[in-house]
Design a protein that fits this description.
Blueprint (H helix, E strand, L loop, with lengths): L2 E5 L3 H12 L3 E5 L3 H20 L5 H9 L1 E4 L2 H5 L4 E4 L5 H14 L5 E4 L6 H6 L7 E6 L8 E6 L5 H13 L3 E6 L6 H17 L5 H12 L5 H8 L1 H15 L8 H8 L12 E3 L6 E3 L6
The chain binds nicotinamide-adenine-dinucleotide.
Length: 296
């Protein structure tokens, strides 16, 4: 594998493009939005600088990585010789299904089609293509250049050969891939989201305050960040939508999202990206304080 196409150049897409380019793959980074592509390139450059400062790569490595990335707004111009496509577009079923239908038409037969989805069924995505055996999940973690894990998700029809190829490729990126089967939430979010939801219920039922809940999990369980702050960073809207996928997929009330989470999302309090969730975030400042709404 040499040619990689990455669809979507947002938070995850720019990190995925960065990691492939750093490991000397040729990367076509594709987004419908030119501004998103420009922003992605500047983020990648900043993150490469950070790696140079830390001694992870040198200036030559940085220059080579940047040369390896080309950007496109038209999918067909970026994917026509791709060995692998990693789709990291907006988490929306209709958007993803339409991208995969299109990819199936325009990519060579050999191309493996991967999705970085956090929660949408790989089996369902594969079923809209004529090559479900070559459709697989590559669930990178944020921030991609730093986090070691790739959850490799086998759809119902994904072949052993394709799974092995993607596992090998993930190791070549310096990552530690873990193979899992395609059921709602896969492994990471099936375990993480109920914990976050339970933390929200714990606040909602008046057991303890926001800071107290996070402190218990940080100091008591050695988590680097409390579950409520982690929810803010993931995006409360993202947490809500993943919980709904778990709830629908298993039909089990234990996954029902806490009504407080639904209310916060409805009101536009989506966490760090919107400036406020359980905590308040000020642009350009590292200071994070518990939101006034959650102060006793
Ligand atoms: N953010 C995370 O922490 C995280 C972690 C793991 C997985 N994911 C998954 O990664 C994917 C991307 O998430 P993100 O946080 O990077 O989103 P994002 O909103 O930052 O970026 C999505 C990008 O996709 C582009 N896009 C939308 N439709 C497109 C299309 N048809 N063709 C090309 N580009 C298109 C948008 O313009 C945008 O730039 C989602 O499936 C998400 O569930 C996110």
């Amino acid at each position: 594998m040499k040619n990689i196409a990455v669809i979507g150049s947002g938070t995850m897409g720019n990190g995925i493009a960065h990691v492939f380019a750093q490991h000397d793959y040729r990367v076509a980074l594709i987004d419908i939005n030119q501004d998103a592509l420009d922003k992605a390139l500047s983020t990648i450059e900043k993150n490469l600088d950070r790696q140079v400062d830390k001694g992870v790569i040198n200036e030559q490595g940085k220059a080579k990585a940047l040369q390896n990335i080309h950007t496109y707004t038209q999918m067909e111009n970026g994917v026509y010789e791709a060995d692998l496509v990693v789709e990291a577009a907006t988490e929306n079923v209709e958007i993803k299904l339409s991208i995969f239908r299109e990819l199936d038409k325009i990519c060579p037969d050999k191309t493996i089609l991967a999705s970085n989805t956090s929660s949408i069924s790989i089996t369902k995505i594969g079923a809209v293509t004529g090559r479900p055996g070559k459709v697989i999940g590559m669930h990178f973690m944020n921030p991609v250049p730093v986090m070691k894990l790739i959850e490799v998700i086998r759809g119902y029809a994904t072949t052993d050969e394709v799974t092995d190829q993607v596992m090998d490729l993930s190791r070549k990126l310096g990552k530690s891939p873990v193979e899992v089967n395609d059921y709602p939430g896969f492994v990471a979010n099936r375990i993480l989201m109920p914990m976050i939801n339970e933390a929200i219920y714990t606040y909602y039922e008046g057991v303890a305050g926001v800071e107290e809940i996070d402190t218990v999990m940080k100091l008591g369980m050695a988590h680097p960040m409390g579950p409520l702050q982690l929810a803010d960073f993931i995006g409360l809207d993202v947490c809500l939508s993943i919980l709904r996928v778990l709830h629908d997929g298993f039909g089990n009330p234990k996954y029902a999202p806490c009504p407080l989470l639904a209310n916060m999302v409805e009101a536009g309090y989506k966490g760090a990206k919107s400036g406020e969730g359980f905590y308040k975030y000020t642009k350009g400042s590292k200071e994070v304080t518990v939101s006034e709404r959650f102060k006793k």
